[in-house]
Amino acid sequence: MATVYRRADQLGPGRIDRERVRRMTEEEILRTSPPELANLPDDFWDDAVVVEPILKEPISLRVDEDVLAWFRKAGPRYQTRMNAVLRRYMEAMTRKPKRRTAR
């Protein structure tokens, strides 16, 4: 599979053009930031920790048409939701069985 590189003007949601952001002034950043980021206290980021994302491995997976259609119907990021379902199943299957109490 060939790697596809996108131009900065073709970036998808949640993607940024880091070079463009580096060229922006503080005023431009403040003006274009979402309202929920306004008026944050000066020490807001002091205890921030960088969290590395979990690497995902691209695979080819065959699933039933109706299963895929159901996930796609919920909108973008359906593959992320499918991964979340698989993760929950994995976690449920690897938990220690609960001990039942005698009645």
Q: Runs with pLDDT <50, length 5+?
A: none
Count all strands and give the number: 0
**What is the N-to-C succession of helices and strands?**
HHHH
Largest sheet composition: none
Indicate the mean pLDDT: 85
Helical residue percent band: 25-40%
- C-alpha termini separation: 59 Å
Secondary structure category: mainly alpha
Shape field: extended
Strand-helix topology:
Elements: H1 18-23, H2 26-32, H3 65-73, H4 78-94
What does it look like?
It is a single chain. With 103 residues, the protein is mostly helical. It has a domain at 8-41 and 59-94. Helices cover 38% and strands 0% of the residues. It has helices at residues 18-23, 26-32, 65-73, 78-94. The termini are far apart. The model has no long low-confidence stretch (mean pLDDT 85).
In short:
The protein is mainly alpha-helical and 103 residues long. It has helices at 18-23, 26-32, 65-73, 78-94.
Give a quick set of tags describing it.
mainly alpha, extended, 4 helices, 103 residues, 38% helix
